[in-house]
Amino acid sequence: MLKLLTCAQGHFWEMEETEANGDSTHEVNFLPRQVCPTCGSGAESLPEFDLAPTESTAVAPVQAVPSSPPPLRDAEGQPVVAGYEIQEALGRTPRGVLVFRARQVFVNRVVTLKVVFGKDDPAQRAWGCLRGEAAALGKLVHPNVVQIFEVGERDRQLFYNAVEQVDGPTLAEKVHDKALTPRQAAQVVETLARAVHAAHGKGIIHRTLKPTSVLVAGKAGAPIEQGTLKLTDFGLVGRPVEGDVNDLDLQGSLPYYLAPEQAWGRVKDFGPATDVYALGAILYELLAGRPPFVADDWTLLIEKIQAKEAVPPSSIRKRVPPDLDAVCRKCLTKNPRRRYASALELADELRRFLDGYPVKVRPLGVVTRLTKGVKRSPLKTAFVLLVVVALASTLTAYLVGRGRDGSVSFNAALARERRAGQDADNFGNRLLEAGQREQRADYFRRILLADRALAAGDEHGVMELLDACPTVGRQWEWYYLRDAVQHRVAGLSFGRLRTGNRPILSLAFSADGRAVAAGTAVEPGGDKKAALHVWNPANGLELLPVKQFDGPVEALAFNAQADVVAAAVTTTTVDAGSSQIVVREIPTGVVRNTIDVSDGRVTDLQFGHIWKFVPGNQMGGSPGPSFAVSEEYLVVAGNDGETIFVQPATGARVQRIPFMPFPKVANGAGRVRLAVGPKNRRVAVCGQTERDTQVWDSETGRVQHVSGVAAVTALCLAFSQEDRLAVGGGDGTVRLLDVNLFVSRLLRAHAGPVRAVAFSPDGARLATAGADKTVKVWDVASGLEILTLKELPAEAVGVAFSPDGRRLAVAVGAEVRLYGGGQP
């Protein structure tokens, strides 16, 4: 007999009663699971009503069945999920999701139940997969995508998804390393591409497409085209894209279908093209019997995906049609923008192949097109050919009768030859550029692997990777890694030039690379003196006797001949402050001049030129062409808003740059920084008190304001030899600005303010120092981060490349560290 039950939440269900001792008295003895199958609350029996007419209308009181919340697991250790009966444990995913075959009681439906216990998932990786799958499938309805029926949780301790149960193998199990026929492969991938396009239309990027993510429903042993494909495994949809490679590493298998942008970690390139690559990799495996790239090692496989080109599937299986071969290669292009624009475009391309039409990615010759046309429609093709032959005969007769002298044909031939030459030149240039890009990518890949090998302690592996790098393209990072190995083998540390206990404020490399200088703050708790140090970077010895000052050395610079070093020393900090500029000779150490700056505190200085055009004279005294002469001056910036040219020998102020003055900051709080561009044509300044960078052009005399270069206050800047300006901001970003075009690119460099920036002499590398105690080196052309120096004990306040680009000086604390080739 059935008993109708309810719970406090208002749910209803039926359970059987049993008779006790065989007498006429019925005692309710409910089944062991006395809980609501929907919410898990305790069961209550409904009141029994006497429907026969009686004198009394009283209703028997409701007797609640006392119960306690059910446990999360039953006696067999299986999860207790209200409304579901566990039938079979199907396994556990690499991310920790438990998978069961279960029956949904109310609708008597078999489902796949995915369960996560909170205490077994402290990193919330498995729960994140459930959340991502639920968010994706909840808004996606497609016949080739598994459906989701219910999402729930219990007391924030047990989470579950109930999804469609597909009785059938995965695509990987169905194929089992055997190549399909070209037509079967095209049909399978076309179906998947249309399902993926539907997901993209809902803003869902799968990111982990692979044969094991596709279920094949149908009769056992039936051909694959007779089955129904179901796309599953949407666990990464809700995960941060930065975790792609790490999450895929948990799969327990090699990521054969990972796109190059995922392997490189280029987050900005993730999108529909990422799934298009994976669909192309699946098509490749269905045609060739193996993935595009095969390796026994995870790192080696990533290396191949990043830099190698896949062998065409037709080279592995001769029966692969050229059309499908071309479709595969377009999907597997390294550059996402050169793949199919969408999964729908890929599906339409495959449909053209299946219908006998030529694919768009592979332009065909006339003979091939006619052959395909004849196969599709023989009668129409024959009629078109007859019309074409008739027209060609008529046109030939007309041209022969028009000009027998051949002039028209000769001019046309010349035009064709000219166009052919231009096309050949363009093709050669594109081929050369492609080769250079491939070499550059291969170089960066080897540097990345060498850096990883160094961190792992594999010095031999580092040297093998470095030796394989082309000699021509070696930059600072190559010398840094080589030198790091040599120092580690010899038990040495990097070259360190110490200033005692005086913190360094300023840093500079001489133009000939034979001197590196550092200016310090006043020594805390010592003799209350600041100092100017000049070392020989080759042996670490002091080139000049240490010069001491009563105030901090806030800025310094070498002249172009490297025989003079100028230092800006703050003497007082009251109100605007005052400074001295000390000009010292190298190698004698003699102070050539001391320039007093009493109307403002000098915060930065560099050497620069002022160009003057002087009329010339020809023989006989007649006026001749003008010629340019230049004199070297000190370009001085102060917190009073003035930027001026100063004669280093006399201290005379020669010219003022018409920058908009920065607000004066009392008590030495603000610092205006400057940079002199290549050929001394431009001077740029930035101030810590407002969001503006200004650039002065010496040829036009005009000042260009570059507003918003940094999201917050600009703190430092530097020029490259290509007139590119780098501006470091207080928000940790660096702007790379083309001064000629005023077009910028943003680098999210550091977790804190950027303290210093410096270009390599050839402008190919940019070093940035941040308050997060790291120094990073970037490839300027691509914006890629090449290497990071993380072992710094404090934040670096200065960076400078040597003139040959092989060494990098970093000022941190009370020492200068030299990274790269040739250090002591």
Question: How does this model look, in words?
Answer:
With 824 residues, the chain is an alpha+beta fold. The protein contains 15 helices and 39 strands. A five-stranded antiparallel sheet has the order 4-5-6-8-7, with helices on one face. Strand 23 and strand 24 form a beta hairpin. Helix 3 packs antiparallel against helix 6.
Q: What secondary-structure arrangement, pairings included, does this model have?
A:
Layout: E1 2-6, E2 12-16, E3 44-45, E4 84-92, E5 98-104, E6 109-117, H1 125-137, E7 148-154, E8 158-164, H2 171-175, H3 182-201, E9 214-217, E10 228-231, H4 244-249, H5 260-264, H6 272-288, H7 298-307, H8 313-316, H9 322-331, H10 343-354, H11 366-376, H12 378-402, H13 407-455, H14 459-467, H15 476-490, E11 495-498, E12 504-509, E13 516-520, E14 530-536, E15 541-542, E16 547-549, E17 553-558, E18 564-572, E19 578-585, E20 591-597, E21 602-617, E22 623-638, E23 643-646, E24 653-656, E25 672-676, E26 682-687, E27 692-697, E28 703-707, E29 714-719, E30 724-729, E31 733-738, E32 743-748, E33 754-759, E34 765-770, E35 775-779, E36 784-789, E37 796-801, E38 807-812, E39 815-820
Antiparallel strand pairs: 1-2, 1-3, 4-5, 5-6, 6-8, 7-8, 9-10, 11-39, 12-13, 13-14, 14-15, 14-16, 17-18, 18-19, 19-20, 21-22, 22-23, 23-24, 25-26, 26-27, 27-28, 29-30, 30-31, 31-32, 33-34, 34-35, 35-36, 37-38, 38-39
Helix pairs in contact: 3-6, 3-10, 6-9, 9-10, 11-12, 13-14, 13-15, 14-15
